[in-house]
Amino acid sequence: MKPSNTHAQATPPTEQQGLYAKREKIHPRIVLGFFSRLKALSGIVLLGIYYIFPWIQWEGRQAVLFDLPARQFHIFGLTFWPQDFIYLAFLLILAGITLFFFTSLAGRLWCGFACPQTIWTDAFLWMERLVEGDRPKQLKLEQAPMSVRKFRLKATKHTLWLVFALFTGFTFVGFFVPIRELAVDVMAFNLGDWETFWLLFYAFATYFQSAMFDKDTMIIAYDEKRGDPRKGRKRNVDYKAQGLGDCINCTMCVQVCPTGIDIRDGLQYQCISCSACIDVCDEIMDKMNYPRGLIRYTTENTLNGKPTQVLRPRIFVYGGILLAIFIGICVAISTRSLVQLNVIRDRNSLFIKTDSGLIENVYRLRVMNIDNRPHVYDVTATGIDGLQLVKEREIEVEPGRVMTLSVRLAADPQNLQKRSMTITFQLTALDNPTLTITEEARFLGPIARR
Fold first, then answer.
1. What whole-number distance in Å separates Cα of residue 403 and Cα of residue 92?
2. What is the distance between the alpha carbons of residues 99 and 190, in angstroms, rounded to a whole number?
3. pLDDT tens digits for 328-365?
4. Across 304-419, where does the E strand assignment appear?
5. Which residue in 175, 186, 191, 190 sits closest to 68, CA to CA?
6. Degrees (nearest 5) of the Cα angle 46, 49, 55?
7. Residues 6 or more apart from 305 whose CB is under 8 A from it?
8. Tens-place pLDDT, residues 160-200
9. 3-class SS at 315?
10. Looking at the DSSP assignment, which residues form a beta bridge with residue 194?
11. In this structure, how many other beta carbons lie within 10 angstroms of the beta carbon of residue 379?
12. The domain 339-444 belongs to what CATH superfamily?
């Protein structure tokens, strides 16, 4: 008697596993070891360089300052000018080759230990642990219903994140504007338009660095429900009767991939979205008389049978920001002045008291003529009663040229209500009164005694 082969012929149980796991908030567990300590040290050093360097003084000025209006780039004892940009090119080449060298030697050291995304993510995770505790406490807090304590902890965490992001944006601007003066302007709510924009923009980018991708984002994906089970077959075979999917397991999608991944294994960080797998798969589907789109641009929600919301809140937020920046650039270009004025106050002394009893401040004016013909300019200063201006020579600037000259402003101390007062320089072309520009500065002096 032959043994029954019922069990042998029975279909073995299969485990169904979705292509995309349910999105859950990640709470990494704290790990201590040689490499974790090395990574922490790397983060401390790099963040220290970023946040501390702008505050270091070197020979009476900021040690690291990229002074764009003055077209001077100070790095400790070195000063570079625009014509020295060839050295910047060499530095970029050196940085690129260094990256190649260390990647070939030890893999993705940059990504793991020095990438800004990695460093700032670790900083945010550290603040999260500081407020919410380690991983078990964070998981317990996530699963707990909303309460006063949970709201307080979440609000504290996000407040820390926001303050950290704003300080990051402030430091970024401090590499281009003297950071000590910038701090005074921030405290006095006296920031210029561009300083405000870049501070908030960089803070926004830091705070929302991980909020760019969601389930409605378009991705290149393999439709597992339609394609599996995979198996080779002839063109005219009734594959559905055999319980097969549309994928004939030709591996063409793998062969054309420049990074060598198998898109059928799900979304992977190596994917550069070149869409070569889509085209080759569509070719195979055409040859087999199957519908196209086994690999296609789609969304995670669509793959899971859920509706996709294209016009979602973040799209309006990002689109609004993009539109505002575009409009701002267009307005700035269309209304730009053909003359530029930069006022740099002499930082060697606060003020000078003249023999006649007046309080004098010295300024350096940089005038750039971006018109296509020369102009002679007149300069005036207002903001303090009886303010007197003395300049060294006539301001005549050729097309595309920059002229720098020193001017002195003198005021009666009786007209000074504060130690620091706002004044306004106005530069006007004598041959074209519509060609004018104004620039604010600070006048320093003692408080007048009444």
1. 31
2. 41
3. 878 877 777 788 888 988 877 788 888 888 999 999 99
4. 339-345, 352-353, 359-369, 375-382, 388-391, 395-397, 402-411
5. 175
6. 155
7. none
8. 999 999 999 999 999 998 999 899 888 888 888 888 888 98
9. helix
10. none
11. 16
12. Immunoglobulins (2.60.40.10)
> Distance between CA atoms of 394 and 414, rounded to whole angstroms?
30
Q: Where are the domains of the chain?
A: 34-207, 219-303, 339-444
pTM above 0.70, yes or no: no
Cβ-defined contacts of 274-281 (< 8 Å, 24+): 275/220, 277/220, 277/253, 278/220, 280/252, 280/253, 280/255, 280/256, 281/252, 281/253
Peptide bond just before 54 cis, omega within 30 deg: no
User: Helix, strand, coil shares of the chain as percentages rounded to 5?
Assistant: 40, 20, 40
Measured between alpha carbons, how far apart are the two ends of the chain, in Å? 124
User: Hey, is 221 helix, strand or coil?
Assistant: strand
Q: Give the DSSP letter of residue 307.
A: -
Q: What is the DSSP string of 352-379?
A: EE-TTS-EEEEEEEEEEE-SSS-EEEEE
| Rounded Cα gap, residues 178 and 61, in angstroms | 9
Tokens of 326: 């575009």
- The CA distance from 57 to 157, in Å, is 33
Phi, psi of 10 (to 5 degrees): -70, 145
DSSP assignment of 4-19 equals P-HHHHSPPP-----S
Strands, E, within 171-305: which ranges? Answer: 219-222, 295-298
Residue pointed to by tokens 């709470």:
27
Count of CB atoms situated within 10 Å of the CB of 242? 10
Question: Which residues 6+ apart lie within 8 Å of 190 measured at CB?
Answer: 184
